[in-house]
Write a structure and sequence with these properties.
Elements lengths: L4 H11 L3 E5 L3 H14 L3 E5 L1 H6 L2 H14 L4 E8 L2 H10 L3 E4 L6 H17 L4 E5 L21 H11 L3 E4 L16 H10 L4 E3 L7 H9 L2 E6 L1 H17 L7 H22 L6
Parallel strand pairs: 1-2, 1-8, 2-3, 3-4, 4-5, 5-6, 6-7, 7-8
The structure holds zinc ion.
Length: 283
């Protein structure tokens, strides 16, 4: 089933679990993530960054994900991750994405509101959900470097005003996570999360979750997170499988063989996360 994320996230919120949003890079990622969701009987969000969209195109990802979703019995959504401007969001919606994120976290509070509201106005006309970001998730998801010394945490009072003025349907929050590979153990500020939750009713989104210990993620879900993003771990799993195969079979020139091991690795990572997020058997 090819669906949008709105009811998926509201169901998760009501059921006190989270839906995994897994970044896909190519056909193999799409097949592996949907196969994992099917096996776990779990709803799933596949998402692409502007970097992946530039590598292939919006149309390629829509065609691949729609094909996988229509053959699956579980709900599958396709989301634009870190939408880098009004134009990209409109293009994604027109191409067939079932939800978009507009990332205005790198501009001022007022400019973020104006940018986000411009996207929600278009999306809501056709009833599509919009994720926005307030505060900063550290690290690098394509671009948007963290400025040293800047407070990365989302201010709960600002969040309340932001949602009221933009009408976004979910919010990515800065609570201590970062994109990419962690050096040292990451730490989610659960108190900040609780304070945001107490002022907002919409689903909250956790970015930069690759490498965050499962117990911290589970606690974040108890504190109101309904969508959890994983990108780096899938890239690592795929590349490792591919390279392991080639290391053992250096004469191989059939790309399907190393890719099969990469897909197996992605599937294992995704299935384990679905159990921890609580989305298993929630399709
Ligand atoms: Zn992110």
């Amino acid at each position: 089933m090819f669906v949008d994320t709105k009811h998926m996230l509201l169901d998760a919120q009501a059921g006190h679990y989270a839906v995994g949003a897994f970044n896909v890079e190519n056909l193999e990622f799409v097949m592996a993530v949907v196969a994992a969701a099917q096996e776990k009987n779990s709803p799933v969000i596949l998402q692409t960054t502007p970097g992946s969209v530039k590598y292939a195109s919006l149309d390629y990802f829509v065609a691949m994900v729609r094909t996988a979703a229509e053959a699956a019995s579980v709900p599958v959504a396709l989301h634009l991750d870190h939408g880098d401007g009004f134009d990209r969001c409109v293009q994604a919606i027109r191409a067939g994405y079932t939800s978009v994120m507009i990332d205005g976290s790198h501009v001022s509070f007022e400019d973020n509101i104006a940018l986000t509201a411009s996207v929600t106005r278009i999306a809501q006309a056709i009833n599509l959900p919009v994720e926005a970001e307030l505060g900063k998730v550290g690290g690098k998801e394509d671009d948007g470097p963290m400025v040293a010394g800047e407070n990365p945490y989302t201010d709960p009072y600002e969040a309340e005003e932001f949602v009221a003025r933009t009408h976004c349907t979910s919010l990515a929050v800065g609570v201590g996570t970062a994109h990419g590979v962690y050096h040292g153990t990451p730490h989610i500020e659960q108190g900040v999360l609780k304070a945001i939750r107490s002022r907002l009713e919409i689903p909250l989104v956790l970015h930069g979750t690759s490498g965050v210990p499962d117990d911290q993620v589970a606690e974040a879900i108890r504190n109101g997170v309904c969508k959890v993003n994983y990108a780096t771990e899938l890239r690592q799993a795929y590349s490792k499988g591919y390279m392991d195969y080639m290391a053992s079979n250096p004469a191989n020139f059939d790309p399907k063989k190393p890719a099969a091991l990469g897909m197996e690795n992605i599937k294992a990572v995704v299935m384990a996360h679905m159990d921890n997020l609580g989305s298993t058997n929630k399709a």
